[in-house]
């Protein structure tokens, strides 16, 4: 429900960005560098967004795009580069060197570090306007040429209104932006994988120099380095499971069993500092633009963390929207804004299709379905035995075509 705009005149800026995640902050920095004024509104505190545990794998095209815009200085110094992953199947290890096939790497850089860098660049270094802890955000007039955003100031309790030309909705699946779409445009295509992942952070050094996927009839498991001292693990579990059902001993027993393979180094155990259950589902909105509202990131789409695509899609959206808004405000060129939704959704669906395919490969053997298990085994064999299949997987896994999509949109 969109409330009526307040009659009280307020500040006016070209762009209001709702949400200070990777999408909103990347967009804000792109606009700030091009002297396009904007205000970022964030419901949480700065401390919260800079420490919230999130994904940590950034595809190389995204890093290069951030570097081109002066947003990757700390990332390039601090991030680990990875070009291999490992599948553990039937007690055997299968090393997959995707960088050799694609020419591209992943950069291991947890989202809180990227968010911290982007906030520092936008607010501290460049003096950008970002307002934390705002409440009761409402969008007004997105179907008109005079949209506005209002919110309650957390310190004074007063209502504040900002008039603008464009609203960028980067506030995730439960934010106000997607809810502002009319019903005929706000419907969502959704896929529920019917599984859960127990997401774990362990205060323990990584036990492998790459991502490890354990494909096991007992259930999928994964190992992913985060920092030299912290490792991310995942365990397949029933959807909606209670994390408290998973004691320290049970977690490590299952990880040892599901990731076991001949010649593999033993897992280094440590205290579990995060333990939560994620239900694996994907969704895509019908359109990412309506009137003067443009969605980006999880407000428009969600990819289950199976293939580490979520943050990369958010960055793709933000870079594409940033370039389109700079062209619009700098040259009056509206082509980028008009084509924004279609260009983004094309990339979104490519990532969604790969995520669905990869999910079946990883979870088919534990599905209790003989057909799905057999099909998953066939996919794994083809991946290991066919150079053509390996090359296609490597290109999708590292998102090689995203760079071409970005360049084509300019």
- Which blocks of ≥5 consecutive residues have pLDDT under 50? 1-8
**Which whole number gives the mean pLDDT?**
93
Cα(first) to Cα(last) distance is 35 Å
Large-scale geometry: globular
The structural class is alpha/beta
- Rg of Cα set: 22 Å
For the largest beta sheet, what order do the strands appear in spatially? Answer: 7-6-15-16-17-14-18-21
User: How much of the polypeptide forms β-strand, as a percent range?
Assistant: 25-35%
Instruction: Please give the number of β-strands.
Output: 21
Largest sheet: 8 strands, mixed
Give the fraction of residues assigned to helices. 25-40%
Count of DSSP helices? 14
Task: Record the SSE blueprint.
Layout (H helix, E strand, L loop, with lengths): L10 E2 L2 E4 L3 H12 L4 E5 L3 H6 L5 E3 H9 L4 H6 L1 E3 L2 E5 L2 E5 L1 H5 L3 E3 L2 H15 L3 E4 L2 E6 L7 E5 L6 E5 L2 E4 L6 H4 L3 H4 L1 E15 L8 E5 L5 E5 L5 E7 L10 H11 L13 E14 L3 E2 L2 E3 L5 E2 L7 H22 L3 H29 L6 H16 L1 H12 L2 H9 L1
Parallel strand pairs: 1-12, 2-3, 2-13, 3-9, 6-15, 13-20
Antiparallel strand pairs: 4-8, 5-8, 6-7, 10-11, 11-12, 14-17, 14-18, 15-16, 16-17, 18-21, 19-20
